[in-house]
Design goal:
By secondary structure, the protein is α+β, with helices and mostly antiparallel strands. It has one domain: Fumarylacetoacetase-like, C-terminal domain (Fumarylacetoacetate hydrolase, domain 2). The strands form 4 sheets. Strands 3, 4, 5, 8, 9, 11, 12 and 15 form an 8-stranded mixed sheet that branches. This is DUF2848 domain-containing protein.
């Protein structure tokens, strides 16, 4: 099982062995907007979920803190998210980027998420320390193409179902245990920005303290198969 390492604002470091990795999907706070998004995806040939929100179990080894993602083709991209990390003593909150195979997505969302890693930040906050203002926390993502960074996502965590919702789900599913990592689902992407970029950077921000947590990685295209 992979082990993730997090630095906390007070200087403590926490190591977490990932035993369960879960990706939330169609997790917008407004389920009316989610329904509109599902209709758009169906028009693109992506299968509709039977209900929303969704929770996709992903192989734990796909939880990474790395500067690189390896992709087999050019149609993969990230998604700005927050992540809950359950430790033996508390719940941590950090930034995440759910890298996804968009070509595989038309065959199944779960398959597309299993084909690429979830990238997590190396810093975290105790959820208890920000629980009274999680809706105010910001999520921002940038993509890099030809050496230029362009903002592709920008919003607040109020656009997504709150951590408390997912903690209740984890308890109900008997998954609230040390080593569980849950990603939140994402906010809308800006139209006209090419998501199929050679690098992604995602930032979780706390306007009250000015603190930020970020993750950044390059997308490395694998060579074509030798056959």
């Amino acid at each position: 099982m992979p082990v993730l390492h997090f630095s906390l604002p007070d200087g403590h470091r926490v190591a977490v062995e990932v035993r369960a990795l879960l990706n939330a999907g169609f997790a917008g706070r407004s389920q009316d907007h989610v329904a509109e998004h599902v209709a758009e995806l169906v028009a693109m040939g992506i299968p509709a979920p039977t209900k929303t929100p969704c929770l996709y179990p992903i192989a734990p080894f796909l939880a990474l803190q790395s500067g690189e993602v390896y992709a087999q083709h050019s149609r993969t991209s990230g998604e700005a998210e927050w992540a809950l990390v359950i430790t033996r003593d508390e719940v941590l909150l950090t930034v995440a980027c759910d890298h996804t195979d968009r070509d595989l997505e038309v065959h199944g969302v779960a398959w597309s998420k299993q084909a690429a890693p979830d990238m997590l930040g190396r810093q975290a906050w105790r959820l208890a320390d920000v629980a009274d203002r999680t809706d105010d926390l910001t999520l921002t993502a940038w993509v890099r193409s030809s050496g230029e960074w362009t903002e592709i996502q920008s919003g607040t965590c109020a656009e997504l179902l709150p951590p408390e919702y997912w903690i209740d789900v984890l308890h109900a599913q008997k998954l609230h245990a040390p080593g569980t990592v849950l990603l939140s689902g994402t906010i809308p992407m800006k139209k006209g920005v090419d998501q199929f970029a050679d690098a992604w950077r995602v930032e979780l921000g706390d306007p009250l303290t000015g603190r930020t947590i970020s993750t950044e990685y390059h997308v490395r295209r694998l060579p074509d198969p030798i056959a």
